[in-house]
Write a structure and sequence with these properties.
Layout: E1 4-7, E2 10-13, E3 18-19, E4 21-25, H1 29-32, H2 35-47, E5 52-56, E6 75-78, E7 81-87, H3 95-108, E8 112-116, H4 136-150, E9 156-161, H5 168-184, E10 190-193, E11 198-199, H6 201-204, E12 213-216, H7 227-237, E13 242-244, H8 266-277, E14 283-286, H9 289-292, H10 306-309, H11 313-317, H12 319-326, E15 334-335, E16 351-355, E17 358-363, E18 369-372, E19 379-387, E20 394-401, E21 405-408, E22 419-427
Parallel strand pairs: 4-5, 4-14, 5-8, 8-9, 9-10, 12-13
Antiparallel strand pairs: 1-2, 2-3, 6-7, 11-12, 15-16, 16-17, 17-22, 18-21, 19-20, 19-22
Helix pairs in contact: 2-3, 4-5, 7-8
Length: 429
């Protein structure tokens, strides 16, 4: 059976076929949805081109004290606290049988479950509900038990962490949990989900159990407008693959403040996706503010139900970045800022990358730019096409001679008018 491996800072199947990680954050999936709802959600994400779903075994919001859709809790009590060393498997259709069902349902849709053993407030309650229940000792036991349960399930990626920083005592818990996982499961990849505005290299740069690193560029201004710089910074600090496991969510109140009257939309989601991927990320994660929470009651902070949010524009469009990446030689792509002369600031800044016989330039506002065609050896000319991130269409518009600069103007300009220039090199006769 095929498994995921690492290749040239990217992910691939062990037969060297590229694997593009296109994830969705469904953190409360196991905790809130029943069987029928879970299958519906997974079918939609499969249709939309996703390849992975990020979900938490011990959920953030009352995940230890409020039962799942069938009223079941994940852990037994010891001294009036949920005990990670005692998963509750008793009675008909336990919590863990429901987790089994969802992971197997995802497999039927060719979707990975990126499985967080716990949300971070269960080992570091610097904010959130908690309670803190993990020690290095029971983290090892729990990690080993969980990995033993799913070691033969082919569609699992392990994701430690859960939106909390790691001090020394928390690092010991993570190391112990990872040791338990690795003892039972030597095949599945392991990564880490950090706190907002941080990346996993800040906490686990020396952790040999981490297969690829992630950042959370988050939902406030700052890192979200420089997410490609975050990716490149991760590249400089590690030889492992890297990606953004939580960028801006569609329908999330900007800066966590619904009073601003602006919720991140599909235009914003596309910017992070193309910035990050052209910075060499091994994939990308989409999120919708109503879906990660599996919201059922619309209001000012969660504006739609999770069902209404499944087909939001960003969710339908984000798979086009996967289409673009898989359309050319996959493993050779590297960021190359020398391809463009301009350096627009803020939300207009360009992203450029080149691979074997091709190059991509992303203009998030459709602003004109000058592309440098002098660095391609043995190229006689280029086919120049515009790729539309809203539709995934690709249209040839010019033949450009090699060895020169060329100024190009995308078909439209303004916010929401993002375009990718595709340059396909043709060798000299």
């Amino acid at each position: 059976m095929k498994k995921l491996v690492l290749k040239n800072r990217y992910l691939a199947w062990d037969d060297e076929i590229p694997f593009f990680y296109l994830g969705d954050t469904a953190w409360e999936l196991f905790h809130k949805l029943d069987q029928q709802e879970s299958e519906y959600y997974l079918r939609e994400r499969k249709r939309q081109g996703f390849t992975a779903v990020q979900a938490v075994a011990l959920a953030e919001y009352a995940g230890l004290t409020k039962g799942n859709a069938y009223g079941r809790l994940p852990l037994k009590l010891r001294d009036n606290l949920p005990d990670p060393g005692q998963p509750d498997l008793e009675g008909p259709y336990s919590y863990w049988e429901h987790v089994d069902f969802i992971i197997q349902a995802a497999q039927k849709q060719d979707l990975f479950i990126t499985l967080l053993p716990t949300w971070g407030d269960k080992f570091n309650k610097c904010w959130g509900e908690g309670p803190e229940i993990f020690t290095p000792e029971n983290a090892y036991v729990y990690g080993k038990w969980l990995a033993d349960r799913y070691q033969d399930q082919p569609n699992v990626i392990w994701m430690l962490g859960g939106d909390r920083p790691l001090e020394a005592k928390h690092r010991r818990i993570m190391d112990a949990m990872a040791r338990g996982i690795r003892e039972a499961d030597k095949d599945h990849l392991i990564t880490f989900h950090p706190a907002g505005g941080h990346d996993s290299l800040e906490y686990l740069a020396d952790a040999d159990y981490i297969d690829f690193h992630t950042a959370q560029t988050g939902h406030s201004v700052g890192k979200c407008y420089e997410s490609d710089a975050v990716m490149l910074n991760m590249r400089e600090r590690s030889g492992k693959p890297y990606m953004d496991s939580e960028p801006r969510y569609e329908d999330h109140p900007a800066c966590f403040n619904e009073k601003l009257g602006y919720h991140w939309n599909a235009d914003d989601i596309r910017q992070n996706a193309y910035w990050n991927v052209l910075a060499g990320a091994c994939g990308h994660t989409y999120g919708n503010h109503n879906i990660w929470f599996m919201n059922n009651i619309p209001g000012s902070y969660h504006t739609r139900t999770w069902q209404q949010s499944l087909t939001r524009p960003g969710a339908e469009q984000v798979a086009h970045v996967k289409k673009l990446r898989l359309s050319r030689d996959y493993f050779s792509l590297v960021q190359d800022g020398s391809l463009v002369r301009e350096s627009y600031a803020g939300i207009g800044h360009l992203a450029a990358a080149r691979g074997k016989g091709y190059a991509f330039v992303y203009s998030p506002l459709g602003l004109p730019f000058t592309v440098n065609l002098t660095g391609f050896q043995q190229a006689e000319y280029f086919k120049a096409s515009w790729f539309d991130p809203r539709t995934g269409s690709e249209v040839l518009f010019a033949i450009l001679p090699a060895g020169h600069e060329a100024t190009v103007a995308p078909p439209t300009q303004g916010k929401g008018c993002d375009w990718v220039l595709i340059l396909d090199a043709h060798p000299q006769a």
